[in-house]
Design brief:
Elements: E1 3-8, H1 15-25, E2 30-36, H2 47-58, E3 64-70, H3 74-81, E4 85-90, H4 93-109, E5 114-119, H5 129-137, H6 148-164
Parallel strand pairs: 1-2, 1-4, 2-3, 4-5
Length: 166
């Protein structure tokens, strides 16, 4: 069985993420979506909330798609899941430079796991979770960038943050 992992913070889950999940699931027998933390980011949602969101949005997809959390080196996570492939999405040249460096480092850590890059659909390339949060914080519409239920969750979270004054 060929297993792939698609790691990310998914804070929030975007239509770009969903595009990569749909397409990545076609490349492997099982796609494990790894929801992680990133110490350099300030998450809007907890890990448990993000896992629940990804599970809900991926539930109707064909194939064997699983959602788990991890808080370790990506290559340790890939090894733990029995993965042969890491699926990564690319949007722009800046993504490529970062991902190319990461792929090289990961190969040094574990040469048995290959990294596969998928270009985001052209219409989804500008979408970034960071920008979605910023747009929502300033009251902009985000429904073009995230699934409907995610848009509602982000708007609700922004409203709570706004009431707390921060």
């Amino acid at each position: 069985m060929r297993i792939g992992v698609y790691p990310g913070t998914f804070d929030p889950l975007t239509l770009g993420h969903m595009d990569i999940i749909r397409r990545g699931a076609k490349l492997v027998d099982r796609l494990v979506i790894g929801v992680t933390t990133n110490p350099s980011k300030s998450p809007m949602f907890s890990v448990a909330e993000r896992v629940a969101t990804v599970e809900r949005e991926a539930a109707g997809l064909p194939g064997d798609v699983r959602v788990v959390t991890f808080d370790s080196l990506l290559m340790d996570f890939a090894e733990r899941e029995g993965a042969a492939v890491i699926v990564r999405g690319l949007r722009a040249v800046a993504d490529f430079e970062y991902e190319y460096q990461m792929a090289g480092m990961n190969q040094q850590l574990n040469a048995r796991v290959e990294t596969v890059f998928l270009m985001a659909d052209v219409s989804l390339q500008p979408i970034a979770s960071r920008l979605v949060k910023e747009i929502a914080l300033y009251g902009g519409a985000i429904d073009k960038f995230v699934p409907a239920a995610v848009a509602a969750e982000v708007v609700a979270r922004v409203a709570v943050v706004g009431r707390k004054g921060g």
